[in-house]
Each structure stands twice: as C-alpha cells, then as structure tokens.
Design brief:
The complex is a heterodimer of chains A (about 160) and B (about 425). In chain A, a hairpin with a 4-residue loop joins strand 5 and strand 6 (about 125-130). Chain A is about 35% helix and about 20% strand. Chain A has a seven-stranded mixed sheet. Chain A has about 160 residues and is of the alpha/beta class. The longest helix of chain A is centred in the middle third of the chain and has 10 residues, at about 90-100. Chain B has two domains: about 5-260, 2-Layer Sandwich (Aconitase, domain 3), CATH 3.30.499; about 270-415, Aconitase, domain 3 (2-Layer Sandwich). In chain B, strands 4-3-2-5-6 form a five-stranded parallel sheet. In chain B, strands 16-15-14-17-18 form a five-stranded parallel sheet. Chain B has a four-stranded parallel sheet with strand order 10-9-8-11. In chain B, about 60% of the residues are buried. The longest helix of chain B is centred in the N-terminal third of the chain and has 16 residues, at about 70-85. The radius of gyration of chain B is 20 Å and the shape is globular. Classes of the chains: A alpha/beta (about 160), B alpha/beta (about 425). The complex binds iron/sulfur cluster. The site of iron/sulfur cluster has 13 residues of chain B, from helix 4 and helix 10.
Amino acid sequence: MKLRGKVFKYGDNVDTDVIIPARYLNNPKPEALAQHCMEDIDKNFVKEVKKGDIIVAGKNFGSGSSREHAPLAIKAAGISCVIAESFARIFYRNAINIGLPILISKEASQNIENGAIVEIDLSTGLIIDLNANKEYKAEPYPEFLQEIIEAGGLIEKIKREVS
Amino acid sequence: MTIVEKILALHSNKSSLRPGELVNAKVDLILGNDVTAPVAIKEFRKIGISKVFDKDKVALVPDHFTPNKDIQSAENSLMMRNFAKEMEITNYFEVGRVGIEHCLLPEKGLVAPGEIIIGADSHTCTYGALNAFATGVGSTDIAAAMATGYLWFRVPETIKIIYTGKLREWVSGKDLILYTIGQIGVDGALYKSIEFMGDTIKNLSIDSRMTMANMAIEAGAKCGLFDYDEKTEEYLKNRVTRNYVPVTSDSDAVYEKILKFDVSNLEPQVAFPHLPENTRAVQEAKNIKIDQAVIGSCTNGRMEDLRIAAKLLKGHKVHPDVRCIIFPGTQEIYKNALKEGLIEIFIDAGAAVSTPTCGPCLGGHMGVLAKGERAVSTTNRNFVGRMGHPESEVYLVNPAVATASAIVGYIVHPEEVLK
Ligand code: SF4
C-alpha cells in the first residue's frame, strides 16, 4: 500500500497523555478523540491535519498509559502512518492491533523535516522524502505481526481463527 | 533462563525461549477498567462469540472516573457493568467494593507467583512484585484474550538491577525506582524485563516492592519482577488458595545488562516536571511552593504509605495554602486506616480523604489542577497536563516528602518536620 502526506514533526517521548489527554477519555468515539489529538503540545495539529498526513517523531513515541485511545485518535485524525526512532511497547502493540501503520527508522526520524511531503510504500518499508529527495528504509515487521497486519488487525485475525 | 523467559515458556508449552522470539501464551487473568474495557467490549463483540473464555479469569474494575464524574463516564461504567452481568464475570467490583485496580487485585488474591496477568492498563506491571509476569496491553489485546485465553508476546531481554546497602530513614521503594529511572531514563528498559535483586530488595516490604514494579513502565519496561521469598509467602497467605509455583532465574540466565546501585546514601528523590527521569535529591528542590499534595494511587496508596503520612501529620496541620488529598487504594486499606486511627489524624490535620479512585492521578476528577498550579504527588507520572491544565506541574515524590511538603507548603525533606 502506498501512502503520501505532509509531515508533522515531533521530538522524543511524545506520551499518550499529550496524544490524547485523560480529560477527553470519557468519550471513546474515535471522531471525538480526534478533535483533541495532540492539543497539549500542538494546538494547530487538529486544524491543519489532512487525511493521509504523516507523523514523524523521535524516540519512545507513545510512552505512558496503555490507552488505545491514543492510536485511535491519531488514526481518526487522518494520519496514515507514524514514523519514529522507537515506539513505547504498548503503543506499538495497539497500533498493530488496530491497524495504524507505524514504521521504525532512526534516519528518517532524524532527517525528515516538519512540513515535508513524504511517500511511503508499506509493503517494502520504503520512505521517500520528496522535499529533500532522500530515501530511507524502515525495519521490516516480524512474520507473526505481518499476519496480524494483513488480516486487518488482531480482531479480524481471531475472527478467522474462531470461525 | 530468566524469570520472564521461564514464565512465558511454561505458558506456551516451550522447553526454552530466547529474547526476541514471539509466542502465543496462555493468560491467567485479564484486567480491564472503566476507560479501557468499553473499547475492549466493542472489539470483543466484533469477534462474534457469546461468552468470554473463562468467567473467573476476567477482572473488571471501574476505578478511573468513579464514582462517576459525569454522564459520559457513567455510560461507560454502565456498559461495563452490563457486560459483566451478561458474561457472569466473577471478578467485577462495584463502587463501594472497588479499589484502584493494582491495589485491589493482589489484595483479592487474584495474582499469584508464576502466573501471567495482562491488563488494559499500563501499570499492570505492579504484580511483578508478587513474582508474576504482568504487563500492560491495549483494549484490543484484552478483547482477543477474553475470547481465546491467549495473547501474543515478544520475549523480552532482561536487565538485572542489584541494589545494595541499608536505606536511610524516609527513603523507600519509591525513591529506589525514581532513582533508577533517573539513571537509565524513561526508555532505559524499553521492551525489556527488569529483575529487581540484591540485599536492599530482600529487606523491602511487599508494599514498597509493588511501588517499584508499578513504575517499571516509567522506564519503558514490559515488566518488573521480584523473587519469591518469605515476605511474598506471608502476603499471599490467606489471600491465594490455589496452587502456584514460584519462579527464579537460573544461575546461567543470560542478561542484557546487569546494573549495580549502592543505595546506602540515597536521599529521598523528586522527579521534576515533565518526565519521571528528571530526578534529583530532595535537597536540590529549593523554594518550590506547592498548591496541592496528593497521597495515594496504585503507586503509593497502601498501608505503609498511609502510615508514613499519618506519622508526619500527627500533631501538625496542612499548610493553609495547600490542598492535601489522600486516597487509600482500596476499601480494605481505607478500613484498616480507619481502625488504626490514621483517618482521624488526616482529618484533624485538614486533609481531604477520598473513597478509593484514580481521581486526580490522571487529572480525571477529585483534585484537578488549574493553570500555573503545582502539585507534589506520590503518583507515577508527571507528564504535561497529567493532573490538569497543560501549564500545571507535578513533582513525583514518596509519601513522606509529599506529606512533609503539605505541612510546610514547599517541597522539603521530611526531617524538616520530624527531626
Ligand atoms: S492510580 Fe493512576 S496510574 Fe494507577 S491505575 Fe489509576 S490512573 Fe492509572
């Protein structure tokens, strides 16, 4: 699958409390969550984000609480993929389980700039920065996780197994 | 093998496992709360089966926005309550019987050594204190596990941390873990298992061990594990009646790293905003005036913590400019505190005592901060906006420092109050 969008760039340790503050967790509908996504660190995110856009961040993205509301909010806001140097482990699982594409690439995370237009080929992990004309390769997923992704998330996979 | 490798192997019918392998393991208990269970229930419905895999192995705990703070949170609780009834879930705890999940489940005997416990809550790692492999996962994960009784795990690398030396007065498990996070960083143990070992740990109470295991996630860890010993046995007596098998690391277990900390001179720690790794000795926190002091949560809402708070508050008053809010972790803890006379001390000192709830810990209700306000707190996170307004601040400390600061109005060493 090919993705293309504008980059919103953030630093290290973007935690789930800023991705979606707890004060909004009382309404778990993805569209409601999306309206407050990132607002504590970036007031303009919700105003500016367009379907297909991409988040590029540093280390330990999604640290903190286990709230699945965080990847749900990002996905519902229109983000097509998150690229980071590393992800917090529960966020990583959640993103895979709900079908939000995430890629690990230290080089892409360090070099791609805010506002850049980036193209991603999810099947190969190729990331192309169209502004800087540079290519990066993300780490491939282990086979086991590839199966979850291909099924369209963990629930779809289990549905096939139990039926 | 290390503790986590052994527990995962036993639960996935493997004779041995190595870090990096992915396994499908059988789980012994699945936890959800009023924030994460509603999302899980929706996912569970999509699978199209009518019953959870085992009604005794699911625990549903409405503790975050309860007693419900608004209509929306009441709807979420209602959805969870109805699901619990429909599925005949044994371990559903209604308001009045509920406690903060990570204080409640061990107390109710739902956690035993060698078991695998997953929870849609990041601080599920608390149960590592009882020699169980316990880890936080997402809502979809628990939906899948409620259906099948299994979940996928990546076998983590293990870091062993050895603590030596006798702790000074007013220094507790909270300071050991804050100091450790300060040393290794908030991603210092990302995806990894930590084994907390050494003579300091052997002398540490179960309450303090739970505080440490609770914050393993604040270093990015998947779990924080302790050995089983007489203290664990004593704690589990009269709580857990089923058979369990404690697990220890083999003498030839392979560790990614072994760290050694001599903690005999460790001072009470303060984690400055906005990361738990911003730790300094309390003496370095100068002239930090506070508006609120929060004592409680799944990190420090147990008897040991309340006893320390009472020891300092006895005969003292909370500073006129400070709101001191005390949250016992469970109804049992609340009742014991009442019996020991601690609650009376708190009220005489001018502190607010709350029914068990997550409340202010996540900026939910019962003590949310205004713009520019500052709190000392015995909780586990001081992220931007964690306890309220994005421009408020949270300083993480142990219960002694929180209480002493509540009395003085500034962050202080407890010695300043009780010499
Ligand atoms: S007390 Fe705080 S950290 Fe613990 S479970 Fe509740 S919200 Fe989470």
